[in-house]
Amino acid sequence: MQFKLHHTDQKSDARAGTITTDHGKINTPIFMPVGTIGTVKGVHQAELKEQVKAQIILGNTYHLYLRPGMETMEAAGGLHKFMNWNGPILTDSGGYQVFSLAHRRKITEEGATFASHIDGSRHLFSPESSLGIQRSIGADIVMAFDECPPYPSTREYAKNSMDLTHRWLERCVTFMNETSPKYGHSQALFPIVQGSSFDDLRTKSCEFIASQDQPGNAIGGLSVGEPIEDMYRISKLCCDVLPKDKPRYLMGVGTPANIIECISRGVDMFDCVLPSRNARHGVIYTRNGIMNMKNAKWRTDFSPIDDRPDAAPTSQTHTKAYLAHLFRVGELLGPQLATLHNLAFYLSLVTEAREHIIEGDFADWAASVLPGLERKL
Amino acid sequence: MQFKLHHTDQKSDARAGTITTDHGKINTPIFMPVGTIGTVKGVHQAELKEQVKAQIILGNTYHLYLRPGMETMEAAGGLHKFMNWNGPILTDSGGYQVFSLAHRRKITEEGATFASHIDGSRHLFSPESSLGIQRSIGADIVMAFDECPPYPSTREYAKNSMDLTHRWLERCVTFMNETSPKYGHSQALFPIVQGSSFDDLRTKSCEFIASQDQPGNAIGGLSVGEPIEDMYRISKLCCDVLPKDKPRYLMGVGTPANIIECISRGVDMFDCVLPSRNARHGVIYTRNGIMNMKNAKWRTDFSPIDDRPDAAPTSQTHTKAYLAHLFRVGELLGPQLATLHNLAFYLSLVTEAREHIIEGDFADWAASVLPGLERKL
């Protein structure tokens, strides 16, 4: 994996770059749609490529490990072939789902034991097993196995958790060095900064993570309930310490406005279930504001869902009234159209942000779009 | 609406023709996907056109009348514009749903009163109101308001019901003659033959229906629980009486094998929820047989869902293992892929049937494909 930094904004820390993987290039800043169990919910792979214009998607190690399982995954030749997606893929380490979704979890120096949320079966995720699973999945970018402390955490908990994450990282790096990819393409490890909302811990974690000299770095443990100011402050603090010549991935963030704010603080990569999950509940993001399609007022609005030329094609050809009707009657096509819309919207937003970074007017552009992004329609 | 009969098979009653509507041509024999409430469940309109290759779709008057309602429908400019489908549309009369779905229904000479299955509100469907609603929906082909007797029915019930359907038909014809289309394109009325499983009633009904000299004719009251032999016998009996120069539409039929059998008996048009409803439950139709994707054995079958060049594109690029995985984990993309597959399969089947009718070897071709169509895999 290679990263080339093309431009850094004069009035902010926003950056435009390009990541090159064996499955293609990714222009940063980028938003990565979440394809939890080998599918971005409700979206065909061809639509992801041609309509959403996704350049990289996420898979969740925890979910894929449980189903279809690694025997099937390896027999398929990895996730790219299993789901028929030939673009770049990033997998998380499974740690976050163990802490948020699994039952009876217990953390030890070795790793985390847990019971499957599906059948209660017991499993162990460790730095080695998580990366071993990610080798079997075959993502282009794999994430270090970390502990994401809950918010709020005491300083002591956050410090101990961070130290454990650092020790686990060293084992991740060793495992990656001692093993090879399974499908002929390379896999890049991204370590994850932790440290909760404590600035000194975050600084220390960034320095440690940077010292591992991996191809990219991630900021974890944010968007877990902390005040928005904390998220912005910690993001900036981390970007100021993390190396400039490597991409920075802020995990699990966020709203369109969050993404613009964090781009301006130096983040290059984002993922979040928000646009797809909210879409399935009828919430639509536009440049003019946020619409809840379950609101009766849209049922007689025969204007396009979004008439911008960079909106999803189906958002330009279908009306708000039609989409509101589909949600009202509970038809599958409602979530399908809404998900396509929101994901295409997120991608068009980061694409335009990148253009303005390159053109040198990102800060002014960001200030001009932020009010619309947060408006309720 | 015009119908041109091109070929009739020598060894069977199979016919190849073309229906011309103001929204385009329909090559017969044809299968019409069901788009109940303004959407074929789980399928984008562009997919219907480009991947399923649907030439005409159905809308259900009962459902569309209740939601979005005719005020919204007229404000949208009719169903074509409301759902953004510019091909031909056929609407049923609403009668079947009143008898199968609505509550507290009561039939009188005037029509049928019923309570909505959604909110219990009371409504009346009559020949005039059904056709009035179908004028507001704006389908290219509209169906006469009929009573579909349950199976089994006594001869007396079937006779009285048929006579009522005939009297209602005369009111439908009068209403159509005295009113005009609302959106500038023409609407053709298809009367419906009834008479349950009684051959003499069916013959009489066909003669009466034919005497009304409408642009096409439909056979109703089949596929309601009668033995398959009855369905085939009555279909043939009706086709033998109904005029040759008009299309014949067998309502609500059926499996792939049913469709081939009824094409050979002279039917030109079919609709059925079977391919789309069964798809959502993981049942996939192929030339080699029927697969239930919830069966564990498919989870490790990495061959394409269907590698025939006329299969849905996604069936050629995705594996059975992937589709089985999607159904196992309950992902939306499973029903989406399965629905695309089954509808494209039905359309490819009638398209190939038509080619063989034109080439003159339909009967041999039908005999060669029928065993595969009914096999369980």
Automatic annotation (TrEMBL), chains A, B:
Biased composition (Basic and acidic residues): 1-14
GO cellular component entries: cytosol
Biological or metabolic pathway of the protein: tRNA modification; tRNA-queuosine biosynthesis
Record has Transferase as a keyword: yes
Region feature Disordered, mapped onto this chain: 1-20
InterPro entries according to UniProt: ArchSynthase1/Queuine_TRR, TGT, TGT-like_sf, tRNA_ribo_trans-like
GO biological process, one term: tRNA queuosine(34) biosynthetic process
GO molecular function term, any single one: tRNA-guanosine(34) queuine transglycosylase activity
EC numbers on record: 2.4.2.29
Domain tRNA-guanine(15) transglycosylase-like as annotated: residue spans: 13-369
Active site per database record: 92, 271
Swiss-Prot/TrEMBL keywords: Glycosyltransferase, Queuosine biosynthesis, Transferase, tRNA processing
HAMAP family linked to this entry: Q_tRNA_Tgt
Subunit structure of this chain's protein: Homodimer. Within each dimer, one monomer is responsible for RNA recognition and catalysis, while the other monomer binds to the replacement base PreQ1.
Family matches, as NCBIfam families: Q_tRNA_tgt (TIGR00430), tgt_general (TIGR00449)
UniProt similarity note: Belongs to the queuine tRNA-ribosyltransferase family.
Function noted in UniProt: Catalyzes the base-exchange of a guanine (G) residue with the queuine precursor 7-aminomethyl-7-deazaguanine (PreQ1) at position 34 (anticodon wobble position) in tRNAs with GU(N) anticodons (tRNA-Asp, -Asn, -His and -Tyr). Catalysis occurs through a double-displacement mechanism. The nucleophile active site attacks the C1' of nucleotide 34 to detach the guanine base from the RNA, forming a covalent enzyme-RNA intermediate. The proton acceptor active site deprotonates the incoming PreQ1, allowing a nucleophilic attack on the C1' of the ribose to form the product.
Descriptive protein name: Queuine tRNA-ribosyltransferase
Organism per entry: Neolewinella aurantiaca
